[in-house]
Amino acid sequence: MTETLLADITASEEQFQLATYKKMPVAAERGERVWIYTSDGDRYLDLYGGHAVAGTGHCHPHVVNAIREQSEQLLFYSNLVYSSVRARAAEKLVSVAPAPLPKVFFCNSGTEANENAMRMARMATGREQIVTFTGGFHGRTADAISATFLGKYRELGKPNVPGHLQADFGDIGSVRAIADDTVAAIMLEPIQSMAGVRMADTGFYRALRELCDERGIVLIYDEVQTGVGRTGEWFFSGSAPGDGVVPDIITLAKALGSGIPVGACLVNEQIASHIKENDLGTTFGGGMLAMAAVTATLEAIESDRLLENVQRVEAYLRERLSEVEQVVAVHGRGFLLGIEFVEKAAAVHQKLLEQKIITGTSSNPNVLRLLPPLCLQEAEVDLFVSALTNG
Ligand SMILES: Cc1ncc(COP(=O)(O)O)c(C=O)c1O
């Protein structure tokens, strides 16, 4: 096979694809674990996980096999028929979810999961308003972008959908002030990723749960980034940093299918009891290929003990970063980390890229984001830290 060089690929993409993303000068051809191999024969350490998607690592053999085997059986049939593959994926996902979230709705992306979660909350309460937070990001379709009070995003969705209220992340008083009996749901990223990996105090999550219980409001956690093992627990919901709080709905996407597009809403019985035939739907949600990927992803996280790996390697990474003079603070949990620098994160990102390490920036100009595959090892952390301290 002849190699197509980066310059040719770049020219071709730029000719035929809308320029909606600022791209790195990397043409990804092959991936393995935490490594991306390029068309020019280079290899990059991927600490961004393909936008937090490659949780099990690039091309995990168990996931690849499951997709390959499923593709020879049946690529797709919709929810108009039953499927053992779908039944297994739903059962497996519910089995790792914090109780009591016993039902799942499958869709295709994070924004779609959030749209459906908000719709379910409105159906269950008969109310319309949704409270979300400054700094939160929930997607780019109409209702989700209207719920996104981060930087320029909401503006991009003009005219916005009515029924959205804004509160300050971490400030329960600001929520109490607006959460009246017109509010159907409070939705949050429990760790605000794009805003620069911001966490609230543990007490904030508990206070939100109590407020929702008191006022009959549905609590939705957008775990599109924090879910599926990223924080070193299956989900932020139910974990110690969130004081064990379990919301009424969790939304998921990104790492759930290891790269096969899939989203999901996990819901409690009370919400489920309000949802009837035809209330929600999507052609591709619950398709067999995606379902095979979900089950294999969750199995791989278990069999490779990736949650324990995240906890151990996070501790090592934090210890190594404490030696780096330019690092002001390390925010977040597990492998959703925001490293705050004295200098601009864009400059650090560029310096690392030149040393063949992929990281992410955020809307905080001083915070570099790491969202690596959950299988990252200590030796790879050492490569990152030496690159940071080089030059
Ligand atoms: C927290 C969060 N919610 C929702 C979304 C939207 O997901 P998708 O791009 O799959 O629609 C994202 C995407 O980055 C996200 O980070």
Description of the structure:
Helix 3 packs antiparallel against helix 11 and helix 12 runs parallel beside helix 14 (378-389). This protein has a 7-stranded mixed β-sheet with strand order 4-12-11-10-7-5-6, with helices on both faces. A 4-stranded mixed β-sheet has the order 1-2-3-15. Helix content is 37%, strand content 18%. The protein has 391 residues and is α/β, with parallel strands linked by helices. The longest helix is centred in the first third of the chain and has 16 residues, at 110-125. It is globular, with a radius of gyration of 21 Å. The model has no long low-confidence stretch (mean pLDDT 97). The chain binds pyridoxal-5'-phosphate.
Short description:
The chain has 391 residues and is of the alpha/beta class. Helices cover 37% and strands 18% of the residues.
Question: Residue ranges: pLDDT <50 for 5 or more in a row?
Answer: none
Strand order of the largest sheet: 4-12-11-10-7-5-6
- Gap between N and C termini, in Å? 38 Å
- Main beta-sheet annotation: 7 strands, mixed
Write the layout of secondary structure elements.
Elements: H1 6-16, E1 28-32, E2 35-38, E3 43-46, H2 49-52, H3 61-73, H4 84-96, E4 103-107, H5 110-125, E5 129-133, H6 142-146, H7 153-156, E6 164-167, H8 172-176, E7 183-188, E8 191-192, E9 198-199, H9 202-215, E10 218-222, E11 249-252, E12 263-267, H10 269-272, H11 288-303, H12 306-321, E13 327-333, E14 336-341, H13 345-354, E15 357-358, E16 367-370, H14 378-389
Parallel strand pairs: 3-15, 5-6, 5-7, 7-10, 10-11
Antiparallel strand pairs: 1-2, 2-3, 4-12, 8-9, 11-12, 13-14, 14-16
Helix pairs in contact: 3-11, 4-11, 12-14
Pyridoxal-5'-phosphate (PLP) is lined by residues 109-111, 114, 137-139, 189, 193, 222, 224-225, 253.
